[in-house]
Fold:
Amino acid sequence: KAGVTQTPRYLIKTRGQQVTLSCSPISGHRSVSWYQQTPGQGLQFLFEYFSETQRNKGNFPGRFSGRQFSNSRSEMNVSTLELGDSALYLCASSIRLGPYEQYFGPGTRLTVT
Amino acid sequence: EDKVVQSPLSLVVHEGDTVTLNCSYEVTNFRSLLWYKQEKKAPTFLFMLTSSGIEKKSGRLSSILDKKELFSILNITATQTGDSAVYLCAFAGNYKLTFGKGTLLTVNP
Structure:
């Protein structure tokens, strides 16, 4: 079974721009969660999508948003980028909704200059 | 606020050594505790523990949970250079995984 895939793998943007990241879950997995990983804060939960609906959300500003499509693929969008948004963005998929066994993709390394 | 603390933050050992990594938590609505290994990019799933006192094993790795004392340990025996990685533990609460900052393990030949 193919694993979780994320595109692009690397991205460089400037402050004020917006960015869209993509995640394709493992076949049959309906839940997609997004995380931000930085050296200082570690892995932090952004949000979770299940059946095309955002079900849970972490403590991030409204500039971070996402959506999920009928084939369970998910996108995450960050608007008005700030320098502090530079991070590794990971998505993880799971068969069911909620904090269960999750499988991570390779991540997108976003650098904001 | 839920908190997961891992110790030590980093560890350097020689091949063949046995290591014990620690994870303690202060959380509400505990569902399970998970361990992941992160080498370069994607964390890879190792174990999920839900019951206290039951050891999970996979080859040279094993883990156990103590729900009364609120901690878990991950043991790695006969370490190899390929075990070098960051080991993350995560608590599964109501709706999300809360991760610790990880333990960086370096295994030297």
Observations:
- The interface with chain B takes residues 3-4, 33, 42-45, 48, 55-56, 58, 88, 90, 98-107 of chain A (CB under 8 Å).
